[in-house]
Write a structure and sequence with these properties.
The complex is a heterodimer of chains A (412) and B (147). Chain A is an alpha+beta fold. In chain A, 47% of the residues lie in helices and 14% in strands. In chain B, a hairpin with a 5-residue loop joins β3 and β4. Chain B starts with 6 loop residues before the first helix and ends with a strand. The chains are: A alpha+beta (412), B alpha+beta (147).
């Protein structure tokens, strides 16, 4: 029989260390219910702009970029329930001859009476703030004709007045997303495991809020590289929670996730691989007294590190954080950390609330499985949970299923 | 007890099911046997000792690492064990429910139940909650069998 031409990936819920990491990712991600809301808001924002007389016929494209486009959205830095979603609006017509600040102001004006809590013009985008802590960043772009599809420039202008510092910045977000997707194909086993767990979690949340459960969920992490990327972003967000300046950019981390992607790796190994790749590049740059330089692989003028790092010390600090992350994951994989110490380390790296939620879910699921005697054990005593046990028992008769029993004894 | 498995039957089942457990002494006179083995149900590797004297309840201890105590926890400093506090044995079943008797294989009851205990113990350390069920009660003896 020929080998299949696609990779299944690994179910992160089959391994305890990967499981707690996956649970943490789930607690940090944009929940499926909110994703549906984000999709509706994206559609409404686009239609609003297209209906504005000043933009009529000049909105050439309106599409998601960044984490929204690669299913890697996690809560914003310093928060557990705020989400930034990024969109590009490619403008043509009269906008092609306008200055960056004028374009940004025009978009700000278009949304002035939009039904959101606040509209704010930033240096490169206009942000719509919703009452439920969702933020939509709308970045205007101009197409560079003669180059790749949707390649062009985005606006950069601090305002409030026009300045000689205002300029257009090269970008090809669309091409980068295509590059990332090509390098990180769907791993069916992982995608199904994440989907099942997400829907179960979302159902529980929705039930608690007496809301309807979405019938369809298209927003699923489809491969281990992206799941590891979410965790690296979360780790960065917590590490820099009290910083006021710029932090290692998400698009740079996405680049490394794409570069390091390799099918059928475990989640923990993938995190180590991505982090080690970044550490290597930073150390190489620092060795020669250079700043880390990462560009869009399909548009070298689109520099992902144009605003971070600004010093060698800054990049070395991030490398040090990543080394601590790698050392911690490796210790957990070796079994060198007692579970209470593991929790301390996870809380420090990924945040108290999400780690507590993740461990609680794990405890409820595994404890329930023990109570119902649904799990099995391999020859080395490794727990095999119900989802895998039924399959494993067929393939490996050495799996021992525990008979029902009731813990007894004293509290000492 | 009618139908009780012999020590040799228990030994054979342990050897076939859990190759990582080694016999560390059998006393034919007292009908007693001891196994030591390593396992890693979830996060940490443990060394377990199982002692069994024919017709009595098996006793399971965690030899390494030392069990972590949480003195202020509502479940106790360590839940679901038998004293002494400095050398506890795991309490894996409720004697009142007759969940174990000498007609049962240690390999398919005591060992996986010990792994269950370790899994729940680790999650208890992580969350402060014992989610594997059970009830607390004092030591019960049953026909001279010491739990």
């Amino acid at each position: 029989m020929n080998a299949p031409l696609f990779f299944q990936g690994r179910n992160p819920f089959d391994d305890p260390v990967d499981r707690i990491l996956a649970e943490i990712a789930m607690s940090s991600q944009l929940p499926p219910g909110l994703h549906n809301k984000a999709t509706q808001r994206f559609k409404a924002a686009r239609e609003h702009l297209e209906a504005d007389a000043r933009f009529e016929g000049d909105v050439e494209h309106f599409y998601p970029q960044g984490s929204m486009a690669i299913d890697a959205t996690i809560s914003t830095r310093g928060t557990d329930n705020e989400y930034d979603l990024d969109f590009i609006t490619q403008l043509g017509g009269r906008f092609r001859s306008m200055q960056p600040l004028a374009i940004l102001k025009e978009i700000e004006d278009a949304y002035r009476n939009y039904p959101v809590q606040k509209v704010a013009r930033q240096t490169r985008c206009v942000t719509l703030y919703y009452a439920d802590n969702m933020h939509l960043d709308i970045t205007p772009a101009l197409r560079a004709y003669g180059r790749l599809d949707r390649e062009g420039w985005i606006t950069h202008a601090k305002g409030p007045n026009a300045s000689t510092d205002d300029h257009l910045v090269d970008m090809n977000a669309y091409g980068f997303i295509a590059w990332y997707r090509e390098r990180t194909p769907t791993e069916q086993r992982l995608a199904k495991a994440m989907r099942d767990h997400w829907l179960a979690m979302d159902k529980a949340l929705q039930a608690a809020e007496v809301d309807e459960v979405p019938e369809q969920c298209n927003f699923i992490v489809k491969n281990t590289a992206t799941l590891a990327l979410q965790l690296l972003k979360r780790f960065r967000n917590i590490g820099y929670a009290n910083y006021s300046g710029r932090i290692p950019p998400s698009v740079m981390l996405s680049y490394y996730a794409g570069m390091a992607a390799q099918p059928d790796m475990s989640l923990s190994d993938m995190m180590i691989r991505q982090a080690t790749w970044i550490i290597g590049d930073i150390e190489q740059a620092s060795r020669y007294g250079r700043l880390l330089h990462v560009a869009n692989p399909i548009c070298e003028r689109d520099v992902f590190t144009d605003r971070w790092p600004t010093s060698i010390a800054q990049q070395n600090e991030f490398a040090k954080m990543l080394k601590d992350l790698v050392a911690g994951i490796q210790a957990a994989k070796r079994g060198d950390m007692a579970p209470n110490k593991l929790m301390d380390w996870l809380r420090h790296g990924f945040g108290d609330r999400v780690v507590t939620l993740a461990a609680d879910r794990m405890a409820d699921e595994i404890g329930g499985s023990v109570e119902r005697a649904e799990q099995g054990y391999g020859r080395r005593g490794g727990i095999i949970l119900p989802s895998a046990a039924s399959i494993a028992a067929v393939a490996a008769p050495s799996i021992v299923r525990a008979q029902p029993h009731t813990f007894f004894g004293e509290k000492i | 007890m009618a139908g009780a498995l012999s020590l040799d039957e228990q030994r054979a089942a342990m050897k076939a099911t859990w190759p990582k457990f080694n016999e560390r002494g059998i006393d034919r006179q007292t009908q007693e046997i001891r196994w030591i083995g390593k396992c890693r149900p979830q996060f940490v590797t443990y060394t377990l000792e199982i002692r069994y004297q024919l017709l009595k309840y098996p006793k399971v201890r965690v030899l390494t690492p030392e069990l972590v105590r949480m003195p202020d926890n509502p479940e106790g400093a360590i839940p679901h064990v038998y004293p002494p506090a400095d050398d506890p044995t795991l309490c894996l079943f409720d004697p009142a429910q007759h969940q174990w008797d000498p007609t049962m294989y240690i390999a398919t009851t005591t060992v996986p139940w010990s792994y269950d205990w370790l899994a729940c113990y680790e999650l208890w350390l992580m969350t402060g909650r014992w989610t594997g069920g059970g009830r607390h009660g004092s030591l019960v003896t049953n026909n001279g069998a010491e739990a």
